[in-house]
Amino acid sequence: MTSILPVTLTGEYVRLEPLSQDHHDGLVDAVNDGELWKLWYTAIPAPEAMAAEIDRRLELQTQGSMLPFATRRLGDGKLVGMTTFMNIDASLPRVEIGSTWNAAGAQGSGTNPDSKLLLLSHAFETLGCTSVEFRTSWHNHQSRAAIARLGAKQDGVLRSNSRLPNGTLRDVVVFSILPNEWPGVKAGLEFRLAKRR
To answer: Of 34, 46, 172, which Cα lies nearest the Cα of 108?
Structure first.
């Protein structure tokens, strides 16, 4: 594999659409649901910074290190967040699923496990990834628990690995899923989604 190209992925609850500036207004509405940019331990764009964040992600896509998506809830057609394949290493291939956020009103609704099922299926079954990584802040207990629920294994903690906009040093928890673990992870995600029907 030499590149990871934009693709639309459609599941039971969400459609992951290749990110564009056309998503701007819907993403501003989504980030206002819960005022997510005020969370101190993560970096979620404020409404006035959304256009710049979309541009940043698209520039990383041009460089080949990110494939960004807007997350659209199928039930009502509203945009509920963003997610990406990032830190792409096309030579292996390997990706990280990250820079993800979901509107407060979408959390716990099935949109996140559906998104993860779509991304992981594409990574392992289409792209042939050797591993898929997840990273989150040590202080983001909700995210850490959600990643562990997927069946990802914690690889370690990178202490003082990055600096947040407020100057705080961030400890990053690293998780991964390997190809031999994917069938079990997939079965777990499918079971979780089936329970919502």
So the answer is: 34
CATH number where 108 lies: 3.40.630.30
Cα-based distances in Å from 148 to 37, 69, 91, 133: 24, 22, 27, 12
CA distances from 63 to 42, 54, 56, 69, 189 (A): 24, 14, 11, 16, 32
Check residue 167 and report its DSSP letter: S
How far is residue 26 from each of residues 19, 29, 78, 104, 148, measured CA to CA in Å? Answer: 12, 5, 7, 14, 30
pTM score of the predicted model: 0.93
Q: How far apart are CA 49 and CA 192, in angstroms?
A: 34
Domain assignment of residue 4, yes or no: no
In a domain, 77, yes or no: yes
Kindly report, residue by residue over 128-156, the tens digit of the pLDDT.
Answer: 999 999 999 898 898 899 899 899 999 99
pLDDT (tens digit per residue) in 24-37: 999 999 999 989 88
Separation CA 39–CA 159 (nearest Å): 20
The reply to whether 50 falls in a domain is yes
